Every structure is written in structure tokens, then in C-alpha cells.
């Protein structure tokens, strides 16, 4: 094995430089790196090649197309991650399949476990250093601490010994996944630092933007710059520099001066903190690291962020000069768009769509706010809605429709998908480019597959060809010639030649061979009067030409002037050199006409250059090599003068385009750019290589002469509308236009004329919480319009928050005293006004007249009292006039009907407590105490206000709980025993009585002796209150006439309740009291409040009970009466008596009135008669309670005649049919309850069924008539006492109920119909027929007669009808889709197909057409190798503690393929529970109570961070903290 490994005596850290063992054929065999093992666990023999197990070929993936073209095998599966958290590395291998050398690498890496480690895990590099703590180095043990950020080799494990400062490289490589640098995501892999982007991908260049967003565009924050200057003269000792908000990043402050910085913090919860920066170093405040540097003349504060709270940077003033602070930071935009979850699906089944929206989210408060907050920031772009399919499962056959939600507005998938355009066929002048377009659809997993094109034809197919690069190709454009470079003789002139593209811009792309020349010779018309030279100007030596020009242009004057001398020859005969000249400050002395030299500072202006580069001809040898570089002794042939003509220069000046225009529009200038060009390479060279004297002159040209387009012009921001909370600043924004460049006036245009987006005219300001302050509402209306009143207002303590909301606080939060909430008003004197007094006397002495309302003029004095004044003072005010009719005694000649009282002969028995009862005079009332009663006296031809009331013959006196209302009725609040008695209502000559008794009161009602008349009969005499002298009017009324019946009804009520509690709830003792009370309350609510009986009905029962109430017949009559009263209450009482009818329990249970069966008292049998049949039963079964008719209009599976009886002893039940003993068989039999069941009842079962209940005290019977013809009939019910042998039913109004009772012509006529024939068609519309006949005679012996005879019995039933009207349709399906749905089991996935309804022509029709047919399934399970997945579990990591309750360990749990081992997303394995990835460990006691030891491996860190004073750390690190 090549490379070296570091061996130690105790713990072996095997860190190999080379990670491969070379086989004979040169292939590399990979060995797992970085294994920490004990040395005593190593084998004695070293590893050999034969020890390497061959790799399992099944673990390799299929070879890709790329691999098939090379000599490589497929990549193997990914290795286990080197770390379980904090970012590690995983590798994959491949082998070379050839004996030759394969190009490329046999190993590749990727990152893994990119989740943060728990805080107590510690630093990964520090763990590797601490692994050597029990290994001797140079004969002794050391505690090793990591060395970070090594600039030479960041991936070597360098550690320093704690205390000694010894730094040692303990291993050449750190473990894979170790960070190269502390402030970077780059990680070491195989000893090499690999780049890792913020997306945790190897080799990625993704970086966080300044806002902390990976690959962001910086739009989620804003850059804030500013500076602050301290004012020592203000007298303050400190001041606030800047408040930096929560989540800000990249903060940098620099203080220059003697003052000192410190920082305060305030969390969003209001927790405050402070940090004094005393020395240079790192500080921590609110989970934020601050780097502070204190130098001699300045302080620097850096915070990378994000800030964990609002930071306020303050400055403490010191003596000396004022300090200047510059700061910069990136402030987050706290209101950001946040995408919502998907809305509910557009349909409940059958396949629909759902979409998302966006909401404005406040990062500080964590709340959703209105959208206007996010619109404040132009950087905020609202996300577009996303669309996805949902509820793809088919609708149930019973649905028949699918519910459409209101936002199902988008066209469904499939859709057209296009590939990118190909490159254009030409770069200019017009070409074409193409792309492919296909129809695709997306399944529930997001997989996109191609499908048939017809599915996308609902929208036009996108184009597959388009023209491109239609603009013209660039061309050369020559500018005008410049003036000649000389004013006499022969010179040069220049021009600019540009390559102009289709946009009019200078660009490349022109053919260089066709470029026009940029300079030419020119001849000035003025001859030069100098030495006659035949050579043109350019052919002369440069210094000669320049000297001539200088002599012509600069001469000595009487003002001090710089006078340059002639240029000396070039320092080099070939190549580049320099030449010099003298420049003197000279002046012409006018009196002597001589030139004098002066110091340079006497001359104004810039001194001309005295040295410049020069270039004559290229050298013949190596470029730039002079004679002085020749080797000694080497002969050099001197070039003879005049042997060859002067060579052309290698470099020359050339125009290269223009600078940018000075104005963007409205006319500007641009200058031609001059460059030094190498003529051979045509590339730009340094300007020193060109002759400066030949530099072309400066050329200027006009540009951007077109008028400026309209543009937005903004004004200054106004002051903020609010000093705190959130305010607005406004500014004027107008679209303006300047007609011409020279014009100073601007025109204001419409906003539509400006193309760019309009700047915002408003922006938020002062966005911080206001202090609590008083909020005063407007004053309310004055209590008086004059004469002095008061008006009030509401004053609240409120606080406006930074998000614009207003918080209401207690008054103690506001600092000052509360403003007044009441003040006087309307102090002016009131004018006089009319005041109404009494009504005048009636205008007539008898009959009907009118009355007028009288008024007086009054005025309020200063003392507040009113004074009556002269009516003239009120003459300006309209006098109130009101008239009302009045009625006195009847005139003698008038005829008026006598008044009458609409009495009701009723007996009211209160059954349970109620809020208020309405009673009418003329009857009796038995009420429960503490009930509110309204006793009404309805009259005709009499005013209700004139009704008089008596009690016991005396006028009724109002009491605190008893009153007579203006409408003439008596209201008694919470009636009591003293209210019992006889109440009399008097209307004119008419009067009616009402006897009121209290249930539970033992006193009997009686009347005074003056009311008793002769013959021993009680008669109540009522004196006429109108004239006491008239004779008494008498009305006989029996006081206690119905007391006995009422007592028995109430006794029966109590026995019913007790019977229910015992017989129907046998386990009530096991149920809690609240449940029983709830059930009793619900039963009471379902029973009537009052039973109302007619007096004549009670009189009839009293007459029938001549034998006394103790007999069984009497009990039967009382039970029957109670059943009647409770069944009719819903019809007789509209105000309070409406028992609910929604549930069987509420309608049936309270109506069971049973005699007490559990007491020792014996009772006769009683059969309970139900008011109706039981409700909630299957349609195939029918239950009828005996006593009700059983009318079967359609066949049923079974019929139950239910007979329920009570008695003591318990009665036995027997059944008869038509008066004879009933014969039982397989169809007709008794149930265990004694009820009768008939299976599949038919015509032979018709008849009268009687249930008889018997015990030793007597018997009773109840009957029901069973009829199956469908005709209407009446039930015949007869209760028989003991020994009753009378007819079963002596009177029958409907003869059809008994077939045996008719003979011959007297038998009724009826229609008989046969069953319908089968439909003539199964779909699309058919018909059915049946036979209809007229029959006469009893059932079983009837015969058919002419149809005309039955016409009087009713309309003839129809004998034909239409059927199966729905169009012919069937369910159709597409073929099953691919098996790539969600994994639902081992090797099981789901696959889909479309199910639709189509007619016989193959056309799709609505689903309801097929609603009656069985719908095929659109989803089924399928077998796929892709779901052969399982949870792959890694080994547990080392426990974080050796004992105690705080240790834990973790392991890697991934969803992997069984065959390939390839990891996949976890949700594919979720059909099986996920194993836990962490657990507690070493949960053992940490030794004896007195033993001092460490229970965690992080105790050294605890001691270094000085955490030992805290009890929770000191108890776990007792040994390390013992000396602190």
C-alpha cells in the first residue's frame, strides 16, 4: 500500500495519504478511509490484496449511455455518509473494464447529512483532536485543541497542546466532511479542500446574497449607509448612533475619535440586553456574534448576522475632539410575499385542480398583514399561483355529479411542452431556428410523460419555426475628414472609421479587409517660407518637425514664458528610445531687446515636457535588443547609412470608436478614442510605443440629437404624516417633456406618455411603535339644546404599533392625567315654548265626541325653574293641536249590543315546569307552584281596559307579584298557594269564573257562607261593582269537581316515570348522575307542559266511573284519557305545547303511561297504545303497534305486531285472529317479548288480530286490522275487561275492512291491478303494461264485472307507462397507465386509468348517463421493482454521555432499494413505520452519591466556557468543576 499512515502506541488514527492498493494490472482497489480503531484490535499480519472482498455486482447501477461509450463499468452505490449531521461526504466507485488506462476518475463524491448537529455535539475538528488525548506524544499525554484556518494546508489535522502552545500535525488529512475554514461551507474530502456552495452541492458556486438567501438576487433586503458626528457641546454624556433592526446582516461601523461604542439589544418579546465593548475580541449578544476591534485612534465593529434582536449602537462621549462614525448594513424587508398552501380542491372526486395564492407576511411579528405593506417595496414581486391536480379518485356511483368550486377557472392538463430554440442559422441578415413541440401530461407524482396530440388540441399548438437575426449585418461607416495638421505646405488629415451594427452602435463583426483608410496626405494653400525641403512633413525626423512647429508657435515676449529648445537626437538608432530638450523660463527686455532667463516659478501655466519617447526604425535583430546587450567579442556589422530606406514604424495611432455620449438624449457630444495600434497584429499596444507628436488631433461630434422622450420628474418628499406608528410621505410625480435641448421650460404630459414605471408618490415612514397616549373621541350630543347641559366623550389609552394596528391599553399605561370626558354645553338661555297639559272635557254629554289637548307658554329661568308666561311670547311658535275621540254613556236613543266574554270550558293540568302559561277564563287550572301565569278574559263589544276582576267575590287588589294589565288580563309572577281561588272576570253585565288550584297544596277550596245558597248546592254570587244596590248575579260552579281525576292522572304520571327508571334503565346505578339527569331532562322536554281537557270529556269519564276509580276498568279509562291528552297536545295548544317529533325517543318514551309495576301494590294488566308506528326501521321490515291498522301497500319481508303490556303480577300475552285461536307455523310465530311476527305476509294473513294480556287480577285486549289490498280503512280497537263477550267491533263505517261481513250485491266494487310487465327496452325508452279489472265480492271469492261499474269508486288506474328513459350508455376505460404511482407496499405501487361514460356511438356523455351501472375502478395496485424498498439502518453513533439522563446517540435511517441499495426519498417507504433515528443511551446512575465524577464528555468545554457556577453543569461535570 503506497503512502504513509500515522501509527501511535495507544489509539491508531489510520489516515492514509494514498487510498488505493495497486493491483497487478494497474487498477486501483479502494480502501475505506479514516477508520478510528484501537491498536490492540489490529491483526498481527498486515493487509494483503487478497483480503479485499470482491464487490457485489448487484450493488451497481445500470451503465449509462455515457459509460457504454467508454471503458468504465457503471458507478457503484453511494457509501454511507462520513457524518450523521453537520455536512459529510459520501463516495461512489467504478472500475475500469479494460487493461488500458481509462480516462477520468474512478471515484466521485457528494455531500450528505446536511442538517445541523445538536449544540452539545461540539466541533468536528475538535473531536478529531481530542481522539488523540489518550495517546502519548513525546512521552507524555496532552489535551489537544484544534488549529483552525491553516492557510498552507487547511485539510491537515493540526492541533495544539493545551497549556504548552505545542502545535503538531497529528494526521495529514482530516476526516471527510470537516470544514476547511470556520467561515466557509467548503469541506475536506480525501485531504483536498473542495468547494461547496450554499446549496450544499460539491463544486457548486452558489453563494448567499447580501440578504442571506442562497443564489438570491439581493431583493429581500436594502443597503443602508450613514454617518454620525458626535456633538460634545450638547452637554450629553451619550447618544444613539443608529438602531439596526432584527435580522439585519453585514453590519460594519467605524468610529474615528476618542469616543467609545457600546451596544444595547431588545428582542421582539421586549427583553433588553446590553454589551460593553471593553477589549478587542468576539462577543455574543442575543445569539449574535460581534467582532470588535479597538485601535489607538479608532474602533471597528463587525457583525455578520443575522441579528437576533433590534440592536441600538450608542456612543459614550469622551473629552477631546468630536468623533465621526460611519456605518453600513443590509436591512431586511420585513414585509415579504409568502406562498400559501394549496386551496381546497375544485372538485370532491373525479379529478380536479387546486392552486396557491400569496399573502403578505410580517417577519417581525410573524403575522399576515394586508397586501399594501408588501406593495411598498418595488423589490417585492408577488409569486404567481401554482396549479396542481387533486382528488383523482373516481366519484362513487351514488354521487351522480361532482361539486365545482368557484375558482375552478383554469383549463386542465395536458398541455403543449416545447424544447429550447436551436441556434440561428445565420448571425445577421435573417435566418431561421426551430424547436420540437409535444403534448405532455403530468401525473400525481409530478412525472411528465408524452401523450397523444389530440389531448392538447383544446389550445393552439405553439410554433416550431421562427425567423431570427433579421437585422442587417454590420457595415463600415467613415466620418468626415479632420482639418490638415499643418497650416502651410504638406501635412496629414485624419478621419474616424467605425463598424456600425443595426442598432447604430459601434461594434465588431465587419470584414477588416474592406475597412476604408483613416489618414491621407493634404496640402495647405499657403507656402512655407522656411528652408526648402523636398520631403513631406511626415518624412522628416520627428524632433525636427516638432521643433519647427514650436519655433513658429512660441516666441519670447515681454511676459515671462516657457520657451522649449529643439529636441535632441533619439537615444537609440533603432527601436524605442528617448529624446530630450531644454525648456527655459525667459522674458524679452524691451529697453535692450535682449532675452533674460528667469526661475521656473516666474512663468505661469504648465511647463512643456522636456523628455519624450522616440522610435526611428525597427531593429534588424530581436525586438528591443540594443548593442549594449551583445556579447563581448562578437563582431557586429554596422549598417551603412543610406544603404536602405527608412523603415516604416511598427506602431501607429488609430481612431477606435467614440466615447459614450455626454447626454442620453436631447443632444450631446462624444470624443473620438485614439489608440496605439500594432500594425502587424492589429492589436492595441501601450501608448508609449507610438510617437506622441503624431497623435491625431481631438475630434468631437454631436450625438443623441433626438429629443428626449417624456420622463418622470419627482419632487421632494413631504414631511412624515405621523411621528410614530406608521406614517406616509408624499411627493409630486409628473410626466414631463423638454421640447428642445436649449429650452429651459418643460411640459407636463399625461402619465401614459412615460414608458418607465411610475415612481411611487408615497412611501412609509416612522415605522416604530408610538408611546401610549390618550385617544379622544368626538364630543357627543349635548343633553340639552339650551339652558345648560352636558356632553360626554370617550377617552381611551391607546398605542399605535409599527404595523399600523392600534392596541388598547389600561389607563395606567398613559403617562399624564386623563383628559376630561365631560364638559358643560348649551349655556344660552332657552326661548319660551309651548307645554301641553291636560285634555279638555269631552265635546258631548253622551255617545262619541272629541277632546282637545291644552297647552300653555312656559320659560325656563336662570335658576332652572319653569315659569308660565303670557301666550303672546309663544306666538311665533306653532301651537300644538292634538285631538282624540272620547266616549261617554250611551245616549237613550242608541242601540248597542251587549258585551260577551269568549270563555273556554277547559281544564288545564300542568304536566311539567314551564316559563309562562296562557290560560282563558271559564275553566279550571291545576298548576305547579312558582309558575308564571297569564289569565286572559277575551271579550266582544267591550273595551279591554274597562274589564274588572274579582277574587272570591271581592275586587282584585294588585300585589308585588300580581297585576292587572291595561289590556285587561291578570298576570301572576311565580304563583303560590295563596293565589288559589275563584277569579271572576266582569265585562258589563257578563261575567265568567276561573278556578285556580295549586298542585301539592293540601288545602281545599271553599267559599264564604254568603255565597252558599239553598238546596246545599254551591253557587257563587258576584255583586255587581257598578251598583252595589242591585241583586246578586248567580253562576253555579263546582270548586273541587275534577280533583279526583287530576289526582289519579298525576299518580299515573309518577308511576310511569318510576317504571321507566326501573324497567328501561336497569343499570342506572352504574351510570353517573349527570347522565341520568340529562336523560330525564330530555324526556321532560319532549313531554307537553300542560294537558288541556274539555270539561264535557271529563264529565263523561266521571259519569262512566260510577263503580269508583279503584277498579281495573277505571285504571284503563284513566290510562286511555292520559294517552288521548298527550297525543293531542301538539294540535290543541299553539303557544307552549309542541313536543318534538324528530326522534323516536322523544315522541315515544314520554308517552308511556304505565301503572306502577315495581311497588307492592297489585295492578290489572294495561296494554300500552302507541300513537304511531316506529320510525327508523328498514324498508323491508314493518313494525305496527297493536291498536293501529296495518295497511300493506307493497310487499315486505316481515311484519311485527308489537304488544306491550304492564301489570303486577306480570301479565301473559295471547293472540287470536278473527276471534279464533291463532295457529302458529314457520311463517307466523311469537317473539320472546310476546309480540307477533309474520314472515312475508300475503292475502291469506288478512284479518283482525287481537292481543290479550292476563294476570290473576283480570285481562285486557287490543286489536289491529291487517289489510294487504292497499285500500284505505279504519282500525277497529276494542278494550275488553274480564268476561266481556260482546261483539269485537259492533260498528264499522268502512265495509272493506271485513270481507266476511258482506254478501252478494252488497259487497263493494274495487279495481284490481296485476304487476307491471318487464320493460320492452333496457335503455333509450321502452314501455310496460298491466291488466286492470273491476272486481266484486269478498276477497278469495270475488269475480270480475264490467268496468263501468267501478267508475264510481275512483279513477281507473293506468295500464301502460314509459320505462328506462335514460339513453343507452356504458362505462368505458382507457388502458392502464404505467406502474409508477405511489408505493403502497413491498414491490407494490398504484397505476391509473381514465373511466368515462360513452354512448353506443362512442361519444363521451355526462357521468349521470351511467349512474345506474357499476363503474369500473380507475385505480389498482401493481407490482414494480421500483417499490422494492426498505428502511436501511446505520450503526448507532457513540453516546454523548457515559452516565446520567442526558446522553443520546443517533443513526442514519434512509429509504433504499433492496437490490441496488440506492437511496430514494423517504415518502416512498412511508407504508412501513420509520425506525427511530436517535435514542437515549447510558441511562445509568453516575456512581455513588458521594463520588465526584464527570457524566459527559463535554465537561472540558464547560470548564473553558466558565459554566461551572451553574448548577445543571456543575452536577454533570463534578470532577472538572471541583477546583473552580
From TrEMBL:
GO terms for biological process: extracellular matrix organization. One of its GO terms (cellular component) is extracellular region. Pfam families: ADAMTS_CR_3, ADAMTS_spacer1, ADAMTSL1, Ig_3, PLAC, TSP1_ADAMTS, TSP_1. Keywords: Disulfide bond, Immunoglobulin domain, Repeat, Secreted, Signal. SMART domains: IG (SM00409), IGc2 (SM00408), TSP1 (SM00209). Residues 1488-1524 form the PLAC domain. Residues 44-67, 621-651, 1057-1082, 1130-1165 are annotated as: Disordered. The keyword Metal-binding does not apply. Its main location: secreted. Residues 899-1008, 1165-1269 form the Ig-like domain. Residues 1-23 form the signal peptide. Residues 634-643 have a biased composition (Acidic residues). The keyword Aminoacyl-tRNA synthetase does not apply. It is found in: Secreted. InterPro entries: ADAMTS/ADAMTS-like, ADAMTS_ADAMTS-like, ADAMTS_CR_3, ADAMTS_spacer1, ADAMTSL1_dom, Ig-like_dom, Ig-like_dom_sf, Ig-like_fold. Disulfide bonds join 81-112, 85-117, 96-102. This is ADAMTS-like protein 1 isoform X1. It comes from Lates calcarifer (Barramundi).
Amino acid at each position: 500500500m503506497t503512502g504513509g499512515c500515522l501509527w501511535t502506541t495507544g489509539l491508531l488514527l489510520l489516515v492514509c495519504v494514498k487510498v488505493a492498493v495497486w493491483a497487478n494490472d494497474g487498477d486501483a482497489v479502494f480502501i475505506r478511509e479514516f477508520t478510528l480503531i484501537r491498536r490492540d484490535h489490529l491483526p498481527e499480519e498486515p493487509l494483503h490484496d487478497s483480503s479485499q472482498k470482491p464487490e457485489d455486482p448487484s450493488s451497481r447501477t445500470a451503465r449509462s449511455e455515457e459509460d457504454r461509450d467508454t471503458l468504465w463499468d457503471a458507478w457503484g452505490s453511494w457509501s454511507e455518509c462520513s457524518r450523521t449531521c453537520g455536512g459529510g461526504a459520501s463516495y461512489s466507485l467504478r472500475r475500469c473494464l479494460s487493461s488500458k488506462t481509462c480516462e477520468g476518475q474512478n471515484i466521485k463524491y457528494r455531500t450528505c447529512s446536511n442538517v445541523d448537529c445538536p449544540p452539545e455535539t461540539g466541533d468536528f475538528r475538535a473531536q478529531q483532536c481530542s481522539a488523540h488525548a489518550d495517546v502519548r506524544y513525546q512521552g507524555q499525554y496532552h489535551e489537544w485543541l484544534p488549529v483552525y484556518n491553516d492557510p498552507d494546508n487547511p485539510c491537515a489535522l493540526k492541533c495544539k497542546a493545551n497549556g504548552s502552545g505545542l502545535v503538531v500535525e497529528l494526521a495529514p488529512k482530516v476526516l471527510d466532511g470537516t470544514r476547511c475554514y470556520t467561515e466557509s461551507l467548503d469541506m475536506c474530502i480525501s485531504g483536498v479542500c473542495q468547494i461547496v456552495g450554499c446549496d450544499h452541492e460539491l463544486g457548486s458556486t452558489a453563494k448567499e446574497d447580501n440578504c442571506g438567501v442562497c443564489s438570491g438576487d439581493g431583493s429581500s433586503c436594502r443597503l443602508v449607509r450613514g454617518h454620525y458626528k458626535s456633538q460634545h457641546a450638547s452637554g450629553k454624556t451619550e447618544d444613539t448612533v443608529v438602531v439596526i433592526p432584527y435580522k439585519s446582516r453585514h453590519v460594519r461601523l467605524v468610529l474615528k475619535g476618542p469616543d467609545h461604542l457600546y451596544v444595547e439589544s431588545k428582542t421582539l418579546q421586549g427583553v433588553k440586553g446590553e454589551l460593553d465593548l471593553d477589549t478587542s475580541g468576539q462577543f455574543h449578544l442575543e445569539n449574535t456574534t460581534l467582532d470588535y476591534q479597538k485601535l489607538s485612534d479608532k474602533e471597528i465593529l463587525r457583525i455578520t448576522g443575522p441579528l437576533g434582536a433590534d440592536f441600538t449602537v450608542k456612543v459614550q462621549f469622551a473629552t477631546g475632539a468630536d468623533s465621526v462614525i460611519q456605518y453600513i448594513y443590509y436591512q431586511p424587508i420585513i414585509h415579504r410575499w409568502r406562498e400559501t398552501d394549496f386551496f381546497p380542491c375544485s372538485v370532491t372526486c373525479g379529478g380536479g385542480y387546486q392552486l396557491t395564492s400569496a399573502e403578505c407576511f410580517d417577519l417581525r411579528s410573524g403575522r399576515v398583514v394586508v397586501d399594501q405593506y408588501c406593495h411598498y417595496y418595488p423589490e417585492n414581486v408577488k409569486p404567481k399561483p401554482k396549479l396542481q391536480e387533486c382528488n383523482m379518485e373516481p366519484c362513487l356511483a351514488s354521487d351522480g355529479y361532482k361539486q365545482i368550486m368557484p375558482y375552478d377557472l383554469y383549463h386542465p392538463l395536458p398541455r403543449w411542452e416545447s424544447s429550447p430554440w436551436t441556434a440561428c442559422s445565420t448571425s445577421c441578415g435573417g435566418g431561421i431556428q426551430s424547436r420540437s413541440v409535444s403534448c405532455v401530461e403530468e401525473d400525481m407524482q409530478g412525472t411528465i410523460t408524452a401523450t397523444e396530440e389530440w389531448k392538447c388540441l383544446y389550445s393552439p399548438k405553439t410554433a416550431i419555426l421562427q425567423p431570427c437575426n433579421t437585422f442587417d449585418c454590420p457595415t463600415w461607416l467613415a466620418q468626415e475628414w479632420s482639418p490638415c495638421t499643418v497650416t502651410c505646405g504638406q501635412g496629414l488629415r485624419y478621419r474616424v472609421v467605425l463598424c456600425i451594427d443595426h442598432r447604430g452602435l459601434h461594434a465588431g463583426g465587419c470584414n477588416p479587409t474592406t475597412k476604408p483608410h483613416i489618414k491621407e496626405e493634404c496640402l495647405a494653400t499657403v507656402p512655407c517660407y522656411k528652408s526648402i525641403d523636398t520631403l513631406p512633413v511626415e518624412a522628416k525626423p520627428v524632433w525636427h518637425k516638432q521643433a519647427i512647429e514650436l519655433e513658429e508657435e512660441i516666441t519670447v515676449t515681454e511676459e515671462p514664458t516657457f520657451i522649449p529648445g529643439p529636441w535632441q537626437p533619439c537615444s537609440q538608432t533603432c527601436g524605442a528610445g528617448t529624446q530630450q530638450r531644454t525648456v527655459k523660463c525667459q522674458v524679452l527686455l524691451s529697453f535692450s531687446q535682449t532675452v533674460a532667463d528667469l526661475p521656473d516659478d516666474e512663468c505661469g501655466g504648465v511647463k512643456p515636457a522636456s523628455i519624450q519617447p522616440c522610435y526611428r526604425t525597427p531593429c534588424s535583430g530581436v525586438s528591443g535588443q540594443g548593442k549594449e546587450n551583445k556579447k563581448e567579442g562578437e563582431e557586429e556589422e554596422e549598417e551603412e547609412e543610406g544603404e536602405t530606406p527608412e523603415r516604416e514604424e511598427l506602431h501607429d495611432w488609430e481612431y477606435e470608436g467614440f466615447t459614450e455620449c455626454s447626454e442620453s438624449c436631447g443632444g450631446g457630444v462624444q470624443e473620438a478614442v485614439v489608440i496605439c495600434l500594432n500594425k502587424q497584429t492589429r492589436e492595441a499596444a501601450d501608448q508609449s510605443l507610438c510617437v506622441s507628436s503624431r497623435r491625431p488631433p481631438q475630434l468631437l461630434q454631436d450625438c443623441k440629437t433626438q429629443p428626449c422622450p417624456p420622463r418622470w420628474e419627482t419632487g421632494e418628499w413631504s414631511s412624515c404624516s405621523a411621528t410614530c406608528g406608521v406614517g406616509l410621505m408624499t411627493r409630486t410625480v409628473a410626466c414631463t417633456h423638454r421640447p428642445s435641448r436649449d429650452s429651459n421650460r418643460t411640459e407636463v404630459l399625461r402619465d401614459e406618455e412615460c414608458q418607465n414605471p411610475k415612481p411611487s408618490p408615497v412611501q412609509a415612514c416612522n415605522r416604530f411603535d408610538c408611546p401610549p397616549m390618550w385617544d379622544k373621541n368626538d364630543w357627543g350630543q349635548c343633553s340639552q339644546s339650551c339652558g345648560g347641559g352636558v356632553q360626554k366623550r370617550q377617552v381611551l389609552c391607546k398605542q399605535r404599533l409599527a404595523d399600523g394596528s392600534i392596541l388598547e391599553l389600561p389607563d395606567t399605561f398613559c403617562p399624564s392625567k386623563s383628559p376630561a370626558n365631560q364638559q358643560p354645553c348649551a349655556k344660552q338661555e332657552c326661548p319660551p315654548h309651548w307645554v301641553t297639559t291636560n285634555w279638555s272635557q269631552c265635546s258631548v254629554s253622551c255617545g262619541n265626541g272629541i277632546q282637545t289637548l291644552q297647552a300653555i307658554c312656559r320659560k325656563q329661568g336662570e335658576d332652572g325653574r319653569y315659569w308660565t308666561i303670557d301666550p303672546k311670547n309663544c306666538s311665533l311658535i306653532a301651537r300644538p293641536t292634538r285631538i282624540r275621540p272620547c266616549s261617554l254613556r250611551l245616549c237613550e236613543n242608541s242601540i248597542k249590543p251587549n258585551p260577551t266574554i269568549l270563555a273556554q270550558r277547559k281544564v288545564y293540568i300542568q304536566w311539567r315546569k314551564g316559563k309562562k302559561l296562557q290560560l282563558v277564563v271559564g275553566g279550571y287550572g291545576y298548576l305547579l307552584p312558582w309558575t308564571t301565569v297569564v289569565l286572559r278574559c277575551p271579550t266582544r263589544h267591550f273595551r279591554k281596559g274597562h274589564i274588572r276582576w274579582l277574587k272570591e267575590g271581592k275586587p282584585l287588589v294588585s300585589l308585588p307579584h300580581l297585576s292587572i294589565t291595561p289590556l285587561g288580563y291578570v298576570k301572576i309572577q311565580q304563583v303560590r298557594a295563596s293565589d288559589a281561588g275563584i277569579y271572576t272576570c266582569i265585562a258589563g253585565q257578563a261575567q265568567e269564573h276561573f278556578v285556580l288550584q295549586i298542585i301539592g297544596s293540601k288545602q281545599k277550596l271553599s267559599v264564604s257562607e254568603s255565597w252558599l245558597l239553598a238546596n246545599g248546592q254551591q253557587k257563587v254570587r258576584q255583586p255587581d261593582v257598578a251598583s252595589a244596590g242591585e241583586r246578586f248575579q248567580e253562576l253555579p260552579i263546582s270548586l273541587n269537581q275534577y280533583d279526583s281525576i287530576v289526582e289519579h292522572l298525576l299518580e299515573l304520571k309518577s308511576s310511569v316515570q318510576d317504571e321507566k327508571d326501573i324497567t328501561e334503565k336497569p343499570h342506572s346505578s352504574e351510570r353517573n348522575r349527570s347522565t341520568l339527569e340529562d336523560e330525564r331532562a330530555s324526556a321532560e322536554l319532549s313531554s307537553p307542559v300542560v294537558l288541556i281537557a274539555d270539561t264535557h270529556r271529563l264529565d263523561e269519564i266521571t259519569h262512566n266511573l260510577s263503580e269508583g276509580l279503584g277498579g281495573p276498568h277505571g285504571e284503563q279509562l284513566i290510562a286511555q284519557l292520559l294517552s288521548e291528552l298527550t297525543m293531542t297536545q301538539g294540535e290543541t295548544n299553539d303557544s307552549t305545547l309542541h313536543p318534538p317529533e324528530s326522534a323516536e325517543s322523544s315522541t315515544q318514551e314520554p308517552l308511556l303511561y304505565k301503572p306502577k309495576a315495581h311497588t307492592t301494590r297489585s295492578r290489572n294488566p294495561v296494554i300500552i297504545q302507541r300513537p304511531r308506528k316506529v320510525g327508523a326501521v328498514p324498508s323491508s321490515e314493518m313494525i305496527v303497534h297493536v291498536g293501529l291498522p296495518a295497511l300493506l301497500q307493497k310487499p315486505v319481508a316481515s311484519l311485527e305486531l308489537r304488544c306491550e303490556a304492564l301489570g303486577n303480577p306480570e301479565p301473559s300475552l295471547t293472540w287470536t285472529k278473527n276471534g279464533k285461536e291463532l295457529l302458529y307455523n314457520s311463517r307466523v310465530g311469537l317473539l320472546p317479548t310476546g309480540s307477533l311476527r309474520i314472515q312475508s305476509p300475503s292475502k291469506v294473513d288478512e284479518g283482525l288480530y287481537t292481543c290479550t294480556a292476563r294476570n290473576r287480577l283480570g285481562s285486557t285486549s287490543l286489536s289491529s286490522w291487517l289489510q294487504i289490498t292497499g285500500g284505505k280503512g279504519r282500525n277497529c280497537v276494542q278494550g275488553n275487561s274480564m268476561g266481556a263477550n260482546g261483539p269485537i267491533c259492533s260498528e264499522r263505517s268502512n265495509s272493506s275492512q271485513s270481507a266476511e261481513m258482506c254478501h252478494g250485491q252488497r259487497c263493494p266494487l274495487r279495481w284490481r291491478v296485476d304487476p307491471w310487465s318487464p320493460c320492452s327496452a333496457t335503455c333509450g325508452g321502452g314501455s310496460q303494461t298491466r291488466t286492470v279489472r273491476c272486481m266484486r265480492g269478498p276477497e278469495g271469492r270475488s269475480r270480475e264485472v264490467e268496468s263501468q261499474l267501478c267508475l264510481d269508486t275512483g279513477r281507473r288506474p293506468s295500464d301502460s307507462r314509459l320505462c328506462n328513459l335514460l339513453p343507452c350508455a356504458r362505462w368505458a376505460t382507457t388502458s392502464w397507465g404505467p406502474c409508477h404511482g405511489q408505493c403502497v407496499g413491498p414491490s407494490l405501487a398504484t397505476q391509473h386509468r381514465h373511466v368515462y361514460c360513452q354512448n353506443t356511438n362512442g361519444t363521451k356523455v355526462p357521468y349521470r348517463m351511467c349512474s345506474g351501472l357499476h363503474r369500473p375502478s380507475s385505480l389498482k395496485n401493481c407490482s414494480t421493482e421500483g417499490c422494492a424498498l426498505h428502511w436501511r439502518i446505520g450503526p448507532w453513533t457513540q453516546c454523548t454521555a457515559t452516565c446520567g439522563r442526558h446522553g443520546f446517540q443517533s443513526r442514519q435511517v434512509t429509504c433504499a432499494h433492496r437490490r441496488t441499495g440506492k437511496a430514494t426519498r423517504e415518502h416512498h417507504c412511508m407504508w412501513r413505520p420509520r425506525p427511530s433515528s436517535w435514542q437515549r443511551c447510558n441511562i445509568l446512575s453516575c456512581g455513588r452519591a458521594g463520588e465526584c465524577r464527570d457524566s459527559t464528555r463535554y465537561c472540558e468545554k464547560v470548564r473553558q466556557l466558565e459554566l461551572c457556577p451553574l448548577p445543571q453543569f456543575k452536577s454533570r461535570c463534578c470532577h472538572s468543576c471541583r477546583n473552580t
